[in-house]
Amino acid sequence: MNVLIVESKQELGMLWQRHLERMGASVTLAQSQEAAILALCGSDFNIIVLDLVLDQGSALAVSDFASYRRPETRVIFVTNTSFFSDGSIFAHSPNACAYVQSGTPPEDLAAMVEHYAATR
């Protein structure tokens, strides 16, 4: 399982990365839109864990690029805001498969990644 995590907060991204690597996943961590786009150009990912609010760039731009470049790659959006809490993220991002809070326990997020990556 090849996973791309796009998270501006390095500590949080690394926490998720460690949990996924313990499950045997290969994980790339990007902290900006630019880094995520470069990763998508160079590798095939089963799934992307994407923070909806990035410090540098746009999460929706990353999702749109992934939808174009890697249409089979699914996206789990995470956020600590109420943006798209009405579920409309699924209308804006055709590759969205889940929407969870950033505070979701890492083991729960890892289980979701494993589940959605397997259904690809």
Describe the structure.
The protein has 120 residues and is of the alpha/beta class. The protein has one domain: Rossmann fold, CATH 3.40.50.2300. Strands 2-1-3-4-5 form a 5-stranded parallel β-sheet, sandwiched between helices. It is globular. Helix 1 (10-22) crosses helix 5 (106-118). Helices cover 42% and strands 22% of the residues.
- Count of beta strands: 5
Strand order of the largest sheet: 2-1-3-4-5
Largest sheet: 5 strands, parallel
Oligomerization status of the protein chains: single chain
Write the element-wise H/E pattern from the N-terminal end onward.
EHEHEHEHEH
What is the CATH fold-level name?
Answer: Rossmann fold
Summarize model confidence as the mean pLDDT. 89
CATH architecture verdict: 3-Layer(aba) Sandwich
CATH superfamily: Response regulator
Rg over C-alpha atoms, rounded to the nearest angstrom: 13 Å
Please work out how many helical segments DSSP would assign. 5
Would you tell me the structural class of the helices and strands? Answer: alpha/beta
Span of the ends, CA to CA:
11 Å
Shape descriptor reads globular
* Poorly predicted ranges: none
**CATH class annotation:** Alpha Beta
**What is the share of helical residues?**
40-55%
Q: What share of residues are in beta strands?
A: 15-25%
